[in-house]
Amino acid sequence: MSLNEMNCLVAQSGGPTSAINSSLSGVIEASLENSSINTIYGAINGIQGVLRDEILNLSELFDKPSSINTLKTTPSMFLGSCRYKLPTQEDNLDEYKRIFAFFDKYNIKFFFYIGGNDSMDTVLKLNNYAVENNYDIRIMGIPKTIDNDLMDTDHTPGFGSAAKYVATTLLEISHDAYCYNIPSVTIVEIMGRNAGWLTAASALARNDYINTPDLIYLPEVAFCTNQFIADIKEIQKTKKNVIIAVSEGIKDETGQYISATAAPNDSFGHAQLSGTGHRLEQLIKESIDCKIRSVELNVLQRSAAHIASLTDIMEASEIAKKAVEFAVNGETGKMVTMHRTKNAPYTIEITTIPVSQVANKEKKIPREWINDKGNNVNQPLIDYIKPLIQGEVKTEFNNGLPTFFPITHLTQRNHY
């Protein structure tokens, strides 16, 4: 393969974020500027797009800087996503042969997979196959997840913007709750299956006139329903309006999810969760006589590009650019990571680690960052999150609404 025939492929996987398209833009920008890369392809719907040979020529789509800038502030995943667990070679060797035949067909020298810890499982498996079969291809993982649960990186792109949205929403909900002079309890359910980083960000809503949420419950500490009711009653001794932030993945003393359904686990073995806030709302109604409301933030946490963190968007692009640089310089089987060098002023350095240190693992909140009662967070956790939500993204508007990069290739398939 001659130098000018080297192409790259990028794909996105897992849950969307407000910053993952900024990472995609970083791959595109760096690849366009790198003489080692000829054409940039994008696989539609992650590794499943590779298996189906569904791709876009990103070199042609993003030949103007204005297009790349619009992509940076476009929510969700421009290339579409998937939640597909690549089988082991022992279980389905044919899929690996098809994937690498695809790489050969399009002269793919560099493959960048943007995703969370399940996506890093795919990176690990593909890199192992490439090494074992002497394929000259460099495979890199680019991190993203609003859950902030990837190992060995200070934080993940996507988390800062979601945290900013959560804190902003809690502040707005607080203003709404206080406008009525009647006793009430408001439960806000926030994403987070086994790690409570995003729910912890609700504490950033506190200011010099509002100290809510009053209670914060995270998956890292066992949840006791009796103690939960007692905590609320204690707050009600001095306050009429009680606001509670709770992770969707809180578990009881036996390790069972409060909201686990009877549905089978997904392909990665994750239990199906449904309605933690609603479950707690019903529980409170049995014990406390007041106005009770549960609010589920749901997909808004990961799609609210209008309140994205500028720090998050910039870092997402920068680590993707570095991923291209690392791959061209010979690295493979790695995930790009960020390490905080200072908290004030906030600075990071970007490096890599073997993807084996990340795949199928979870980073949880240190117990010492949660209060002894398990119903609130300590100051070090707030100090850790605060730098990640700083800055506002400039967005172009048309007819009063934000301008996003069109996803025609995805919407066209939405019709039968």
Automatic annotation (TrEMBL):
<keyword id="KW-0460">Magnesium</keyword>
<keyword id="KW-0808">Transferase</keyword>
<dbReference type="InterPro" id="IPR035966">
    <property type="entry name" value="PKF_sf"/>
</dbReference>
<comment type="similarity">
    <text>Belongs to the phosphofructokinase type A (PFKA) family. PPi-dependent PFK group II subfamily. Clade 'B2' sub-subfamily.</text>
</comment>
<feature type="domain" description="Phosphofructokinase">
    <location>
        <begin position="8"/>
        <end position="326"/>
    </location>
</feature>
<keyword id="KW-0418">Kinase</keyword>
<dbReference type="GO" id="GO:0005737">
    <property type="term" value="C:cytoplasm"/>
</dbReference>
<feature type="active site" description="Proton acceptor">
    <location>
        <position position="147"/>
    </location>
</feature>
<comment type="subunit">
    <text>Homodimer.</text>
</comment>
<feature type="binding site">
    <location>
        <position position="15"/>
    </location>
    <ligand>
        <name>diphosphate</name>
    </ligand>
</feature>
<dbReference type="InterPro" id="IPR022953">
    <property type="entry name" value="ATP_PFK"/>
</dbReference>
<protein>
    <recommendedName>
        <fullName>Pyrophosphate--fructose 6-phosphate 1-phosphotransferase</fullName>
        <ecNumber>2.7.1.90</ecNumber>
    </recommendedName>
</protein>
<feature type="site" description="Important for catalytic activity; stabilizes the transition state when the phosphoryl donor is PPi">
    <location>
        <position position="144"/>
    </location>
</feature>
<dbReference type="GO" id="GO:0003872">
    <property type="term" value="F:6-phosphofructokinase activity"/>
</dbReference>
<feature type="binding site">
    <location>
        <begin position="191"/>
        <end position="193"/>
    </location>
    <ligand>
        <name>substrate</name>
    </ligand>
</feature>
<feature type="binding site">
    <location>
        <position position="117"/>
    </location>
    <ligand>
        <name>Mg(2+)</name>
    </ligand>
</feature>
<feature type="binding site">
    <location>
        <begin position="145"/>
        <end position="147"/>
    </location>
    <ligand>
        <name>substrate</name>
    </ligand>
</feature>
<keyword id="KW-0479">Metal-binding</keyword>
<comment type="pathway">
    <text>Carbohydrate degradation; glycolysis; D-glyceraldehyde 3-phosphate and glycerone phosphate from D-glucose: step 3/4.</text>
</comment>
<dbReference type="GO" id="GO:0046872">
    <property type="term" value="F:metal ion binding"/>
</dbReference>
<keyword id="KW-0963">Cytoplasm</keyword>
<dbReference type="InterPro" id="IPR050929">
    <property type="entry name" value="PFKA"/>
</dbReference>
<dbReference type="InterPro" id="IPR000023">
    <property type="entry name" value="Phosphofructokinase_dom"/>
</dbReference>
<keyword id="KW-0324">Glycolysis</keyword>
<feature type="binding site">
    <location>
        <position position="248"/>
    </location>
    <ligand>
        <name>substrate</name>
    </ligand>
</feature>
<comment type="function">
    <text>Catalyzes the phosphorylation of D-fructose 6-phosphate, the first committing step of glycolysis. Uses inorganic phosphate (PPi) as phosphoryl donor instead of ATP like common ATP-dependent phosphofructokinases (ATP-PFKs), which renders the reaction reversible, and can thus function both in glycolysis and gluconeogenesis. Consistently, PPi-PFK can replace the enzymes of both the forward (ATP-PFK) and reverse (fructose-bisphosphatase (FBPase)) reactions.</text>
</comment>
<feature type="site" description="Important for catalytic activity and substrate specificity; stabilizes the transition state when the phosphoryl donor is PPi; prevents ATP from binding by mimicking the alpha-phosphate group of ATP">
    <location>
        <position position="118"/>
    </location>
</feature>
<dbReference type="Pfam" id="PF00365">
    <property type="entry name" value="PFK"/>
</dbReference>
<dbReference type="GO" id="GO:0047334">
    <property type="term" value="F:diphosphate-fructose-6-phosphate 1-phosphotransferase activity"/>
</dbReference>
<dbReference type="GO" id="GO:0006002">
    <property type="term" value="P:fructose 6-phosphate metabolic process"/>
</dbReference>
<dbReference type="InterPro" id="IPR011404">
    <property type="entry name" value="PPi-PFK"/>
</dbReference>
